[in-house]
Amino acid sequence: MNTKEEILEILQDMHPEVDDFESIAELVHGGTLDSLNIVMLIAELSDRFDIEIPPQEVSYENFDTVAGLVAMVERLQEN
Amino acid sequence: MGFTSLYFVAFLAVLFPLYFLFPKKYRWTVLLIASVVFYLLCSWKSIFFITFTSVAVYFVSIGMEKNKAKEKLFIEQNPDISKDDKKILKAKNKKKRKALLVLGILSIVLVLVVMKYLNFLIGNINAIFDLFGGNFKFSTVKWLLPLGISFYTFQAIAYLADVYWGKYPAQRNFLKFFLFMSFFPKIMQGPILRYNESADSIFEGHDFNYDDFVDGMKRVLWGYFKKMVVADCLLVFTTYAFGNPSEISGFEALLVILSYFIADYCDFSGYMDIACGISKCMGIKLPENFNHPYFAVGIDDYWRRWHMTLGTWFKDYIFYPLSISKFSLWLGKKSKRIFKKHANKIPAIFGLIIVWFLTGLWHGASWNYILWGLYFGAIIILGIIFEPLFNWLYAKLKINKEVWWLKVWRHIRTLMLLAFGKILFETNSLAGTFEFLSSMFNGVNYWTFVVLNNTIGYPTLAAALACAAIVFVIDLIQELKPQTTFIEKLNKKPKVVQWVLLIILIVLIVWLGFYGQGLPKFEFGYVGF
Question: Of A26, B302, B314, B525, whose Cβ has the fewest other Cβ atoms within 10 Å?
Answer without folding.
Answer: A26
